[in-house]
Amino acid sequence: MHLEAYEPVVGSEEIAEIRALARHLRGLKVQHINSTRVGGGVAEILARLTPMMNELGIEAQWSVMTAKPAFFEVTKAIHNALHGATDLVTDSMFRLYSAEAMANRDLLDREADVVVLHDPQPLPLIRARRRGRGRAIWRCHIDLSMAQAAVWGLLRPMVERCDAAVFHLVDYAKELTVPQFIIPPAIDPLSDKNRELTSAEIRGVLDRLSIDPSRPIVLQVSRFDFLKDPLGVIDAYKIAKRSVDCQLVLAGGSAADDPEGEKVLSLVLERAQGDPDIHVLNLSPDSHVEINALQRSAAVVVQKSLREGFGLVVTEAMWKGKAVIGGAVGGIRNQVIHGITGYLVNTVEGTAFRIKQLVANPELAQRLGEAGREYVRTNFLLTQYLKSWMVLILSVVKRRTQGVLELRG
Amino acid sequence: MGQPFEFYSETGIRIWTGIKADNLKSLLEAVRTVRGSAIFYHMHHSLFRRHFTAADYMNDFARWVLLNQSQEVLAEKLASIDPWEYNTVREVREVLMDYLDRYIGEGERFQRVPAGSEFFFLEQRSALFPTGLVAANLKEFFSCLQYASCSTFFFHLVEARLRLGRKSNDFSEWLGNSLGESELAQRIASISPYQYNLWGIREKVLSLVGERLADAS
By the CB < 8 Å criterion, does B15 face chain A? Predict the structure, then answer.
């Protein structure tokens, strides 16, 4: 997707500014390294970001490391431990992780001005970097706020060999000796998940899913996980429905390989039983247009998470001009400005109150939704993300993390 | 005729200072010691991030004190600080400290917020770059304004004046000193970015310059 395609979304002056800024990075070599080319948010964003950088004259490349299955078992344990789980990472596991990552040392572009290591998987490669040649950035896409101290302690020395670390939220930042930048993730307004849909497309989706478009829809999009509190959403809907007519749609991903997900789905179906106005949808991972249509047709979007990372699903809903009722946790608090772009809630009762309020008052919901859309336009679109990366690269290359970078010419 | 006006824009990313506050006392201590760029970010840059929400408390300090400390009176006082009334970030810091200090008084007990709800002091790491828009006279200035982004308006009207210590905003300085348009310069200087959102400021400036052009022709 060329940059010009974003003009109708962000304005021609924004694209002109991106090009003006990019002139100062022309010819810089940037190498992104992660562990998978498909699946997951990191691959998705790199698939967009890398060609955009190339279009702007930055020599960007995206390299993917390879490793044995045992490596990925260890990194899964590291991932869980960094999220606060009790997974054990033994010395031998850590040695395997380091050795397998280092086996990819030839992947490193020695001529790169900046190498970006995404998440823990490629992090040991920092040891293969020759000091004085190029800069290294560790880009963390994980919530580290509850990380197991012992496991974080294994990674920290490697992070501190980089020139900078980047987190989604300042809440995830740690005590480090390197500068810590905060760059939230972003949505692509032109992807199937977020592009404009015609009325016919939206109607077609609702028809296929047997949802009545003429009555207000309360929607939560999330995998079937206790931390997303789908049971609490059903309870809140039932309270609200005593006062306002509405339908509830819980749209989740496939739970085929997640034993807990299957259990949660089963409990949700049981709680929803007997109410034809509760639609529990178990959609496939590539149901982007369906999710898009559901979000666009919702009267109110709920994200009653008990714990949340950044919460791009909230960003997506706000981009579609929807008022969001969000759990007061994680990145939801950075996006839902209470009373301005939506409401933050802590209880089932609070969620029910806000559902009633917004379903009964579409003008209020519209006003909150419009503010949310503008908030996303200014802060969480791919074009802003691209600009952030350019400033980060310039800061690291010029070794200046304080003051203003004045670029001339 | 002086130098032409070169339109700049700025874009930035946030960097954590490593400092956070979990109650009013530690907030005061941190306000006393953090770099001025952190004060600027939390007082002024929230204007840019949330410029469409003029009805909200505009600065981060007021919002945190209200939402995380439930101190409505103090939040109201902090929100009332109009950075536009001060020429330097140092002066804004002193006002902040004064309000916090008086409110805290001689108290010894200060409620701590849970982990994750602290006030994290951030700075903006900005890149300032020429947009390619250049104006040599009022007509060209008006034409360039129509292509300028909100970031450009924010830089020339707010950031340049306060963070870089200039006497007035860039537009007014150039209009007054290079074109002799002192009345237009004064009218633009009187626009407070805290009374309008950035779109409103843009429209106001365009309107003032357009009117002057029409008068002059």
Answer: yes
